Known about the structure:
117 residues, 54% helix, alpha/beta, four-stranded parallel sheet, globular
Amino acid sequence: MQAANDRVIAIAQIETKKAVEHIEEIASVEGIDALLIGPNDLSVSLGIPGDLMNPIELEAISKVAEACRKYGKNFGLHAGEGMLRKFADDLTLVMCGTDTDIITKGFAETAEMVKTL
């Protein structure tokens, strides 16, 4: 059981205004290893859909990063380059690209290869 626990991580996704409002409680939970923000969903919940660099969004993300530091949790973002750069000093978990982006890129590369045959 201990070996399994050492290899498995528990990640709490922070994607709502309510989660940010309760971030201290969430971050203090023993057994949660990381907090991961989904900025697009968070922006919708904050009432600023798609406005990812809005000060309201950035303040909410900063609050989560601060809670991660306070409680010794890993901090992550599933975001694009601009946001990743903005929070680079706090990030310990990074997700970039989506499944559809990866698949689309793969198809585009395959199509280019086929054109050269």
